Amino acid sequence: MDRVNGKNKKIGGRCDDSRTQTESERMGGVTKKSQSNGTIEISTNREDSDRGNPDWKLVPIRDTTAGKIIERLEALEKRHLEYVHAHQARLKARLGESEEAENQFKEETSQIKSDIYYLVTSEKSRDDVIEPE
Q1: Computed from CA positions of residues 81, 87, 90, 94, in that sequence, does the dihedral angle turn out positive or negative?
Q2: Would residue 17 be called left, alpha or beta, if left means φ above 0 and alpha means ψ between -120 and 50 degrees?
Q3: Which of 54, 47, 50, 55 is nearest to 29 (CA)?
Q4: What is the rounded distance in angstroms from the CA atom of residue 128 to the CA atom of residue 123?
Q5: Model pTM?
Q6: What span, in angstroms and rounded, lies between the C-alpha atoms of 96 and 102?
Q7: Which of 2, 57, 63, 121 can pair with 68 through a Cys bridge, CB separation 3.0 to 4.6 Å?
Q8: Residues near 45 by beta carbon (within 8 Å), at least 6 away in sequence
Q9: Which among 29, 63, 54, 57 has a CA at the least distance from the CA of 43?
């Protein structure tokens, strides 16, 4: 579709006339050009991005005495170490299973090699025997 913008005649492309607000106004943030690649950075709330995660505001205030803080820290430590030790036990059990499977595999392959060697040597000894005619 042909379009005249006052100076040039453009063919195709998107029609920007339907937009009533700029992108930054719709997003509600401040735009600035990036120095690295010229893209536009959009921030919806600059105040929160400067302070990191604002979720801490939503947590109710607890008893902040030294004893309670230490108690919560020790409970956290206990839960974490219980999880880690249980995970380590699972890993050790899987390691034991893996080592057992490896040993069984080695024994079986060794037995099969011995069987093949026996077959080859017994056929060779039969071929070496001269049968009377």
Answers
A1: negative
A2: alpha
A3: 47
A4: 9
A5: 0.41
A6: 10
A7: 63
A8: 29
A9: 29
Strands (E), the chain: 2-4, 9-11, 30-33, 40-43
Q: Which amino acid is it at 112?
A: I
For 6, left (φ over 0), alpha (ψ -120 to 50), or beta?
Answer: left
In angstroms, the CA 34 to CA 31 distance is 9
Query: Is residue 42 within 8 Å of residue 31, measured between CB atoms?
Result: yes
pLDDT digits 0-9 by tens, 51-87: 666 555 666 778 788 899 999 999 999 999 999 999 9
> Which token pair is 71?
């108690």
Q: Which residue type sits at 129?
A: V
**Structural domain boundaries of the chain?**
66-128
Higher pLDDT, 105 or 26: 105
